[in-house]
Amino acid sequence: MHIAIEGLDGVGKTTTAKALSEKIGFHFIEKPLHYLMTNGDDGMETYIRIMEKVNNETDLFFRSLYYSAGNCFTANIAKKINIVTDRHIASTYFWNHISGKNDNLFDMLINYCGKPDFTFILFAEQSVRQTRIHKRNPNDPDLKNKSFSDNEYDKLIDFVRYYDMPFFFLDTSQLSQEEVISQMLYVLKNEGLI
User: What's the predicted TM-score (pTM) here?
Assistant: First the structure.
């Protein structure tokens, strides 16, 4: 089974995905392509260096292909074990979709890799996200380079609706981590997934 946690930077995806995976006994997967780099800690360091170069590419089609490989790799992991992922195919779409140019790629990804069993889209108001990123790292370049419009979530929601992906939109702005996990557990139980 595969539960994907999606959302914009600073919303608490990684913390939530880790906590949820521990609570339900699933494996936590973050940046799946790093598992292909090397064994051990330097696999993540190698991945981060490659990811930075890929993210600096102006060719969004190339970038979407790169991250799509991670989506397919994750889908194969989910066939063997239960996982919770920090980002998945909706994020690949959000950051790399070019209308009319790579639509077929996302059709292929859904057909080949399938959809997560359930997707949570975590939301937090822009001021909350900025505060969380600043608290995490006051020198984070995302504070200068990222847009923090609340309207950006429409693209994520349109994607999961278009592909008929089961999802739940959860506003974490005023919730503690425990409250977020509690709501997620409630939703997953009601969906019959746990």
Answer: 0.89
